[in-house]
């Protein structure tokens, strides 16, 4: 009888994937339970270190008060984001990539 290595590796890989999924599910359940049992502010502050760093900058804010309804607020906001991504790809034997991704926006 000839056995393939995949018959031995396959169940191990599936076990690892299932275990990781279970840990993620348990973590989400614990967070939801903690949120329901305590104040929202305490939960957010406890998980603050898990948030990624988003180094964005606000360049300017302008608030309009002409030609708007009483229940509206119209603002122009300049938001700039400069990330530190590093994406590398290969296409037909050529190497390409993206570095220092930047986004600029004039919101309205």
UniProtKB/TrEMBL annotation:
It holds the Pfam family SMP_LBD. The keyword Cell inner membrane does not apply. Keywords: Membrane, Transmembrane, Transmembrane helix. InterPro entries: Extended_Synaptotagmin, Synaptotagmin_SMP. Residues 50-90 form the Synaptotagmin SMP domain. This is Synaptotagmin SMP domain-containing protein. The lineage of its organism: Eukaryota, Metazoa, Ecdysozoa, Arthropoda, Hexapoda.
């Amino acid at each position: 009888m000839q056995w393939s290595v995949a018959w031995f590796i396959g169940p191990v890989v599936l076990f690892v994937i299932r275990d990781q999924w279970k840990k993620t599910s348990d973590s989400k359940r614990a967070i939801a339970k903690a949120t329901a049992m305590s104040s929202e502010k305490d939960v957010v502050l406890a998980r603050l270190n898990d948030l990624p760093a988003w180094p964005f900058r606000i360049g300017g804010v302008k608030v309009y008060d002409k030609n708007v309804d009483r229940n509206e607020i119209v603002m122009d906001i300049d938001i700039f984001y400069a990330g530190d991504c590093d994406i590398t790809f290969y296409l037909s034997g050529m190497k390409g990539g993206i570095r220092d991704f930047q986004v600029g926006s004039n919101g309205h």
